[in-house]
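go over this chain:
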Amino acid sequence: MSGNLRTDQFFNLKYHIKTFGCQMNKHDSERIAGMLESLGALPVETIEESDLVVFMTCCVREAADIRLIGQVSSMKNIPLRKGSPVSKRIIAIGGCIGQRDGQKLLDDLDHVDVVFGTNNLASLPSLLDSAINDHERLAETVEESTMFPTELPTVREHQWAAWLPITIGCNNFCTYCIVPYVRGREKSRPFEDVVKEAQSYVAAGVKEITLLGQNVNSYGRDLYGKPRFADMLEAVAETGIERIRFATSHPKDLTDEVIEKFATLPNLMPALHLPAQAGSNRVLKAMHRVYTIEHYRELVAKLREACPGIALSTDIIVGFPGETEEDFEDTYQLVKDMGYSQVFTFIYSKREGTPAAKMVDNTPRSVIQERFDRLREVVEKGAYDYNQASLGKTLPVLIEGYSKKEQSILTGRSPENITVHVAAPEGSNAHECVGKILDVSIDEAKTWYLRGHFDNA
């Protein structure tokens, strides 16, 4: 990786990474941290402390672009720390916006030094080398990755949890989505490589692995002629990992074999994110989702039969071009019927370069907002109702750390991926709970979280 890098320039350089968007971006950020720290750079918690800031960006919605521009622009007013080894704070932009906009970001933001894409993470050290030593402003993006990010060094956010990418890219080309254009076509990792990495995490004491891909259900189709995701779940489960999760799961490729694993693999957590996007067949067709709502409902019925109590979450887009009141009512009814534990709702955001951006829509914004607000009410009721089933139960909770709002409270995740708050035990051993799976008796069930006490307290 280092090649002819002037690595002395990285030693004790203080870096800060700001990550937006999906789990794949979070994993990419861990790889960037791994590369920088292998060169001697040191992580810091704030921009003010940093010599180098890396923005890992998402361009799924317009708000992400606006947020990035605002945060990057504001950095002009943040002075460089005293004693910094660089003459100016180095700013790098990566991720999906970096891939999409490339040189344009350098043209529009004159204090940005480096832009890199989703397919060339490994180039970042050399790009930073040129920025630091030669004061060059460089943008580099490539259309296709020659390596998986997993081949790079990593610094995981949590030692007890690991992201494990099994595919990169996407072949689905939903009409609203920019991801295939900035992440490229779908590529699967060799089966044996994934299993070997999972085994290494188990040996390192990792409690939970999350398999990642834009569409994990189609894993292996490009390598083996047919999807092998069910086989992958089986093989990772056999490593002895305590918890397995995966994201994201496209309904069109969710097979009976994968559904069956929720019944037969005890370490596959009873939670699934299954994006519906809409409850109207007409809208689904316009979105190029390639399934009907009847098929989606059938999948949910099979999942609930295989794993009663499974926590289902979903994504819903409100205001897709041409959505009628009848279309929205179909979506509203779907959310009401499904009993989701969580729904991520979004107002449609036009993304230039996608087919949907050319679709005509005359629906007033006020109507779309009213629909969104109406849907949010049923979403909140559904989440509250789902959580009531945990009241009075004892759940094994993976403790992730202290609450940001209450330092006397520990927070973690139930098997169903619901946030659980629990009072930290008194004394110096409270920190020893972090990273462990501990039994928590649930005393309160709110809309977005559970609260309880340690069973042995």
The chain has 14 helices and 19 strands. The longest strand covers residues 394-402. The chain has a mean pLDDT of 91.
